[in-house]
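idk why but the lab printer keeps eating my pages so im just putting this in chat instead. protein + C2E:
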Amino acid sequence: MNAITALYELARIPSLQTHQNILIVDDESRFRLAYRELLADDERTIDEASTGQEAIARLKEGRTDLVILDLKLPDISGLEIMEWMTAHNIDASVIVFSADKSINSAIHALRHRAFEFLRKDCDPNDMIHAVDRALANRQRDQELALVSAQLQHSERLHRFLVEQSPDMIFTLDRQGRFTFINGRVSTLLGYEPRELVGQHYTRVVDPRDYEHVQYAFNERRVGERATSNIEVRFKRKPSTPRARNGAVVTTILSSQGVYESHPLGQPGAFLGTSGVARDISERKKAEQTIAFQAFHDLLTKLPNRTLFVDRLEMAMVQASRRKEKLAVMFLDLDRFKLVNDTYGHQVGDQLLREFAVRVRACLRTGDTLARQGGDEFTALLPTISNKEDVSVVAEKILSELRKPFLLGETQFLATTSIGLAVYPDDSANAEELIRCADMAMYQVKGQGKNGYTAFQPHMHTANLDRLSVENDLRKAVKEGNQFELHFQPQIDADLGKVVGLEALIRWNHPRAGMISPDVFIPIAEETGLIIAISDWVLREACAQLAHLKQHGFGEIRLGVNLSPREFDRVDLLERIRIPLDEFRIAPESLEIEITESLLMKDVENIVARVKRLRSTGVHISIDDFGTRYSSLNYLRRFSVNRIKIDQSFVRDLRTPHDSFAIIQAIVGIARNFNLHVIVEGVETEQQVAILKQLGCNEMQGYFFSRPLPSAKLMDFLKLANRSGSGESFAPRPGFHTEGRDHIQASTQNPTPAGT
Ligand SMILES: Nc1nc2c(ncn2[C@@H]2O[C@@H]3COP(=O)(O)O[C@H]4[C@@H](O)[C@H](n5cnc6c(=O)[nH]c(N)nc65)O[C@@H]4COP(=O)(O)O[C@H]3[C@H]2O)c(=O)[nH]1
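predcted complex ->
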């Protein structure tokens, strides 16, 4: 029986019957008629029987309330009928009428539970009164039985409701000991009610709440002033299976005093306290999750921006009181987008999580590391004695990141750009201080990444949030004089000659300084500004090629990056042809660099487009090669000229590593397909030597030169030409022109995301 059916069963209470049935049993019809006339009433039904058997048959129907019974009947005696009634539990009153005047028959009749004994010749009024009395008596008995049944029902119903209640219901005596507790306690706390009856409430209340609940558990008040809805934590019975889900159940409790009832309606003596406790653990958990979500980043479980600002503001108040300084760091993972695009969001997320753990480990307990969103993190160092303290932490972070991350089967090297700002030197406002650190971080990005720098007032004028970058970028595109094209030499290490250049755009923001293409190219792609920017790059590149030709460097090819969005343009060929024609450049001098990820999008369509592009005569190279695991067989179909092995492979060349085999394989297969190979990101002499051994002779990287502005390019080329040997391209002062003097971290082994 389920709880609802049980409830209905319990609610079925018999009702009081008002109509009464009288059975007249007499063998003489004149008596039966006379009695009927005397007793007739709207509220009564009168039935007759002339023999004992007939009477028994009527009585068996069970509807009779009163029997007017003649003792002398033709078949069986009235006394036998009464005996039968007793034997068969027939619940009907009996008034015996008899012509027999002996006292014996009266005694017999009364012994057989007759209600009254009357002589047949009695006064009719006596008969009427006797019947009225018998029926009234019966009615009273019925009423009593009904009240008792109702009480029983009510008791069972309430017990049922209390036991079925989802809440814990209890009563305590004056000393705070349980006198009753419903069965809910066993599912909630793991105790059987009998284990707790007689025990003090502190047996089950969490000690942390003793003080705060003592009034509720000793509540004497009733009505509105009584305790309602206070939070109480109960302890689960130790070692019960539920205790494993958590040792504490949080409830909301209402309680009130219980008093003896008093005949005059006034409250009697205080008996104890009754209470109802509702389990709100789930709600509590949900509230905690919501509160956590409001102030934390769910991926890394670090504080989010809101909590960070809050802590920063508090720390600033304390620092001001103690006349101390504090520092804010803004960290941004370098080339994180590439990791995400290449290996997918799951790996990207894992990298962010592990990056957070590693950075956190470089900080002290009182420091706060927060995730601002995306690949941006901030750290609060609330107690620093001088700016050098912060540099030490930044160095430590950069150094920790030199160890690769192991994500699944893959090793990643990740670097970060860090901006620093100090309170109160740079700002006394929390948001502003974060912005200062952010601006400093952008500077690091703009000047080569993988380093740190402190905020300088000249950076202050630019507020480089996403929106203002977008607005400023529009302005820059319109005005056209904020972009610069830098050129990074590509060397044939065997011949010791510069054989190519890669054109890399720079945005010289009027207030923020140099901004990295990693920062603004994605925004340019999203906003469509990339089209105008690329047109500018192509024209500048062709102008540079013409200039080189004039100065005797006509053999040098020039690589230009083409973003995927531009690749979809219908007028792409024309856009490339216009500057080539304008500056009379042979198409094969121009090399369009497209990323490997582009090739993997819609192969058939891309094959056709690449072919069309090739038909103009320009060369095509595949940038960041190796990051997408595309099959080399594919490359033949794409009819590209060159592949650029991604710098992440080169970074691992310090020690024998998978990269050895990968580079060797790429070089071998590329040779079979008549594809040229160049390796980017070459930074050390050791890498040059290994790459040469691996059969890679074309290289590009900081070891030879950083990207150079046009003005310095010619000097570099002249010097390189004069030296004539690969070894002479070792870094020398003057060629590293992307001024990184303010970036104090070593970039000896910069390690953006890699294998
Ligand atoms: N750590 C290290 N880095 C080295 C080394 N040698 C060169 N690099 C850097 O590696 C990046 C190579 O360019 P990319 O892979 O095409 O990656 C480029 C390219 O995807 C994009 N980009 C640059 N210029 C343009 C452009 O004109 N158009 C488009 N669509 N994208 C561009 O922005 C990316 C970043 O450019 P940059 O910041 O100039 O960063 C450049 C270059 O400065 C080295 O030895 N070590």
